[in-house]
């Protein structure tokens, strides 16, 4: 018999809200994490992207808060403006009728407006660590009643860029405050760093939900000079409603956007230098299907949760295996099917092979031909008779086998319009 949300002892009001949203069965990470959080244990929680980690901590947090006690009782820390707002929206939907119970705190906006919202006594604050620490140090926000602090995207939040402000926020809370770290990947360095502010933390490594349709991982070999054309043809081939393309340098983006738009594949670039309003508008239009291709860097896209994303393209290779996992996790969320492609040169093939080995995820080489993705053709060695090939022509010593991907690119393949 499968576990239900009611079996996990979250509040009856939350069970009713989830039922109204046709959510009856918790995911593995929710089954494992919720009881521990309700017990008050510190925990480090790893679960694949898109498996319900946000609800795994929001449901027990909102079960435990006292709505009659007008103090901040829980804090969620996240690395980007978009993720903070996303988590805050989910929390608000779980607390209908409580307009002031959740306050998002992010940098780059008017501090006075945030202080005014804090004066309305929220029970939950969702924040980027830098701005939150600023408000705490200015005594604009009190944390003496905070019972739980959650660090979302913990592998990034404890790196060189965020580690110090996160640790400082932890120091401002009481020693017996419950500390929870959530991420799709929990490297040894993160576990070690967390020991500075956690106590006897449980480690949960949850699997993806059973019955998940799965995500297919593939890579294409291309000439670097034809990379944009390969991307265009790939997007035409898969023909999905929404794709996210990851790049490493923003200098490449103008060329990509202009060529995709020219070939009637509308695309936009999500970048960190845009205003908060511009970024929010771009994401909302992407969610609404106004344009099918979102191009972004790792920094801008961290934590974006758009369930309908069907395809991820690593236009540039990820910096490491963990980043590959996080990028790829933007598709196949909550057990849906998804496609992940990497576009690499022959010299970059070893990167994909390394990621496959480190993650345990099979990444298959493919090439495009006549509107289909095909496996590379095995190289046929010429038959040699009496020192001569069967066709009578002299054998060439040291001849290199042709690259099927390059052969397809020269022919033009498919999808040209």
From TrEMBL:
Residues 406-417 have a biased composition (Basic residues). Residues 3-31 form the DEAD-box RNA helicase Q domain. It holds the Pfam family Helicase_C. GO terms for molecular function: ATP binding; hydrolase activity; RNA helicase activity; RNA strand annealing activity. InterPro entries: DEAD/DEAH_box_helicase_dom (IPR011545), DEAD/DEAH_RhlB (IPR044742), DEAD_box_RNA_helicases (IPR050547), Helicase_ATP-bd (IPR014001), Helicase_C-like (IPR001650), P-loop_NTPase (IPR027417), RNA-helicase_DEAD-box_CS (IPR000629), RNA_helicase_DEAD_Q_motif (IPR014014). A motif (Q motif) lies at residues 3-31. This is Superfamily II DNA and RNA helicase. GO terms for biological process: response to cold. Belongs to the DEAD box helicase family. Keywords: ATP-binding, Helicase, Hydrolase, Nucleotide-binding. Residues 34-204 form the Helicase ATP-binding domain. Coiled coil: none annotated. Residues 369-417 are annotated as: Disordered. Residues 230-374 form the Helicase C-terminal domain. GO terms for cellular component: cytosol; ribosome.
């Amino acid at each position: 018999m499968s576990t239900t949300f009611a079996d996990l002892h979250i509040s009856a009001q939350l069970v009713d809200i989830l039922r109204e949203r046709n959510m009856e069965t918790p995911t593995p990470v929710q089954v494992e994490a919720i009881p521990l959080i309700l017990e008050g244990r510190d925990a480090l929680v790893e679960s694949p992207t898109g498996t319900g980690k946000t609800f795994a901590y929001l449901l027990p947090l909102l079960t435990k808060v006292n709505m009659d006690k007008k103090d901040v009782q829980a804090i969620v820390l996240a690395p980007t403006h978009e993720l903070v707002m996303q988590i805050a929206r989910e929390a608000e939907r779980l607390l209908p009728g409580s307009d002031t119970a959740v306050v998002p705190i992010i940098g780059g906006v008017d501090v006075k407006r945030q202080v005014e919202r804090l004066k309305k006594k929220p029970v939950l604050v969702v924040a980027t660590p830098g701005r939150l620490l600023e408000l705490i140090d200015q005594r604009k926000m009190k944390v003496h009643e905070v019972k739980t602090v959650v660090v979302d995207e913990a592998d990034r939040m404890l790196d060189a860029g965020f580690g110090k402000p996160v640790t400082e926020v932890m120091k401002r809370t009481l020693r017996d405050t419950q500390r929870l770290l959530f991420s799709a990947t929990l490297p040894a360095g993160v576990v070690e760093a967390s020991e500075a502010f956690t106590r006897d933390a449980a480690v949960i490594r949850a699997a993806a939900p059973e019955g998940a349709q799965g995500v297919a991982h593939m890579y294409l070999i291309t000439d670097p000079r034809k990379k944009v054309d390969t991307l265009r043809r790939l997007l035409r081939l898969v023909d999905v409603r929404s794709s996210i393309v990851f790049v490493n340098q923003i200098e490449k983006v103008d060329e990509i956007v202009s060529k995709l738009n020219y070939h009637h594949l509308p695309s936009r670039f999500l970048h960190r230098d845009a205003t908060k309003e511009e970024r929010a508008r771009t994401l909302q239009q992407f969610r609404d299907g106004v344009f099918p291709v979102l191009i972004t860097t790792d920094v801008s896209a961290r934590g974006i949760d758009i369930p309908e994303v069907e395809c991820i393209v690593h236009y540039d290779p990820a910096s490491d295996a963990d980043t590959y996992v996080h990028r790829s996790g933007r598709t196949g969320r909550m057990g849906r099917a998804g496609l992940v492609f990497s576009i690499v040169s022959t010299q970059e093939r070893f990167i994909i092979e390394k990621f496959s080995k480190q993650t345990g995820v099979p990444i298959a080489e493919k090439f495009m031909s006549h509107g289909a993705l095909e496996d590379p053709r095995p190289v046929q060695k010429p038959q040699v008779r009496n020192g001569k090939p069967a066709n009578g022509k002299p054998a060439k010593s040291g001849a290199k086998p042709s690259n099927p991907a390059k052969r397809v690119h020269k022919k033009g393949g498919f999808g040209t319009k």
